[in-house]
Write a sequence for this structure.
């Protein structure tokens, strides 16, 4: 999923990482960060839920909170672009791409 999103949204970055042998590491780091981000958001979302009146309401609220946390993590960590600086690692949300010099390659 990460590799596909990178190739679709930032093909220059994808090709650069592939060419330099950094693609696998970048994908693994992004995956780890995405999952960490999701888990943190899910915990916070579940802690913020109101006290349910029924077990069905509890289940529905928890499922919705989990879905929102997952969508937030995906939106953050799969937001690739060829417009910015080249990534060296996936330590921050990857709204990063290439420097002016690397875009010319």
């Amino acid at each position: 999923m990460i590799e596909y999103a990178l190739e679709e949204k930032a093909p220059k970055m994808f090709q650069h990482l592939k060419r330099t042998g950094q693609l696998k590491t970048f994908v693994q780091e992004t995956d780890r960060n995405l999952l960490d981000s999701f888990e943190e958001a899910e915990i916070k979302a579940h802690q913020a839920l109101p006290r349910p009146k029924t077990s069905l309401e509890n289940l529905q609220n928890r499922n919705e909170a989990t879905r929102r946390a997952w969508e937030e993590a995906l939106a953050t960590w799969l937001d690739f672009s060829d417009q910015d600086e080249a990534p060296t690692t996936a330590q921050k949300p990857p709204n990063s791409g290439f420097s002016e010099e690397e875009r010319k390659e």
